[in-house]
């Protein structure tokens, strides 16, 4: 449907084109996700793997809403707000951005399969497989964000520096893993942008020459 294609274009601009989020793109993205969830409930939308991925993408903006609520609570509490609350708001945005980027890349890859390998890829493009992929993505994102939360807590409390012995080594390893994961996330974000541009470049010229 045209509405779903417009929504995907909006999300690609929001997460894979813009260098950083802003208030306008965030609000428009939330409204687009709400409308998309309503559209996906319609009987006119068939249950396909692409619809499952788009639904998971739209549901990801629930994390943005929760982050805004958390930020509003932190602002209302003023200086007395616990550092963990502010860290949770940031991590929710991180989870939304990372999960959305990977889901958008999955949609792009599926579009590539539909365009160039429609018959060969049909056994893979099932609703069940799409649900498994979506769950796997969010499981990995949840694990990533849990590590970030632990690292933020250790940094704010100074526990990693104060601890000695095996516990201190474990805390230092956790902090190092979080730092490496942040760097890896940045590199993967750039790679996903390049891959998505390449996929849609190939699809555009393939369709235009037919």
Automatic annotation (TrEMBL):
One of its GO terms (cellular component) is plasma membrane. Keywords: G-protein coupled receptor, Glycoprotein, Membrane, Receptor, Transducer, Transmembrane, Transmembrane helix. Residues 32-210 form the G-protein coupled receptors family 1 profile domain. It is found in: Membrane. GO terms for biological process: phospholipase C-activating G protein-coupled receptor signaling pathway; positive regulation of Rho protein signal transduction. InterPro entries: GPCR_Rhodpsn_7TM. GO terms for molecular function: G protein-coupled receptor activity. The keyword Transmembrane helix applies. Its main location: membrane. It is a multi-pass membrane protein. The keyword Transmembrane helix applies. PANTHER family: G-PROTEIN COUPLED RECEPTOR (PTHR24232), GENE 5127-RELATED (PTHR24232:SF83). This is LPAR6 protein. The gene is Lpar6_3.
């Amino acid at each position: 449907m045209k509405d779903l294609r417009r929504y995907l274009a909006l999300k690609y601009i929001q997460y894979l084109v813009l260098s950083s989020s802003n208030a306008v793109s965030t609000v428009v993205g939330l409204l687009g996700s709400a409308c998309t969830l309503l559209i996906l409930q319609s009987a006119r939308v068939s249950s396909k793997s692409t619809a499952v991925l788009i639904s998971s993408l739209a549901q990801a903006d629930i994390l943005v809403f929760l982050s805004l609520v958390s930020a509003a609570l932190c602002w209302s509490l003023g200086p007395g707000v616990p550092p963990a609350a502010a860290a949770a708001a940031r991590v929710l945005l991180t989870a939304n951005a990372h999960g959305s980027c990977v889901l958008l890349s999955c949609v792009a890859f599926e579009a590539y399969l539909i365009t160039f390998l429609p018959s060969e890829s049909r056994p893979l493009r099932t609703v069940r497989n799409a649900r498994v992929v979506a769950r796997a993505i969010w499981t990995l994102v949840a694990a990533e964000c849990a590590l970030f939360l632990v690292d933020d807590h250790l940094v704010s409390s100074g526990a990693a520096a104060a601890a000695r012995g095996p516990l201190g080594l474990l805390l230092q390893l956790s902090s190092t893993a979080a730092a490496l994961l942040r760097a890896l996330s940045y590199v993967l974000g750039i790679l996903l942008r390049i891959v998505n541009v390449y996929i849609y470049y190939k699809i555009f010229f393939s369709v235009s020459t037919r």
